[in-house]
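Quick start: what a row looks like.
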Amino acid sequence: MLASGSVTELHRWPVKSMAGQPVDALRIDERGAAGDRAHALFDEHKGAPRRLTAREAPRMLLWRAGYDGEIEADDVPTPTLTAPDGRSFAWQDNDLPRALEDDLGRPVALKRDLGLMQDLGHSLLVTTQATLDAVAAELDAPLDLRRFRTNVHVVLDDAAAYTEEQWEGRELAIGEATFRLLHPCERCAIPTRDPDTTEKWGELLRWLTRERRGLFGINARPLRAARIALGDPVTVR
């Protein structure tokens, strides 16, 4: 056994690049976490549809998307979106595209895909508290976990920071669920944006690139359908 610990946070992101929701449990199957990145916005770039992210439209981070309660992998509802000014919209609301266009400064199309639209398909992101604390200490600044848009955050017993960078190819067990650990996650510019203000902190990515090859967290692929919850035991073998 390489590491053990427990789950301390779970997050689901119903709309890609929007703020998501902390949850007590996640249903997972081979696609990933139920409802995670099941919705996205598209704009037009150079005459072709483009999946829009906070790289192009940072104000997406100020929109919050959520489902009501625990959801099943094969019964994912549409989310409710909350605008920066507090207005709420159902995904099917005819006023939502115009509200998004007015706030983001561009026309958008809404897309739903229960195959999920992660950057790396059929996966979840796992992060560790030791690494989060180590990066914050090196930068001498608080570091909000939401910047990294993790799905599963764990506290490990007696494990050093960055230990997850050595887990590629290993098996991760979380409660009743098992995962194949893929490669460490190479970060883009999105973590440089404050999730509450969108203010850019370029030094975060510069430091990660310079000192950690741009890595933070590790991608994990579910091996079977299961449910994971806060407090579940974690082991890496």
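That is the whole record. The mean pLDDT is 97. DSSP finds three helices and 17 strands in the chain.
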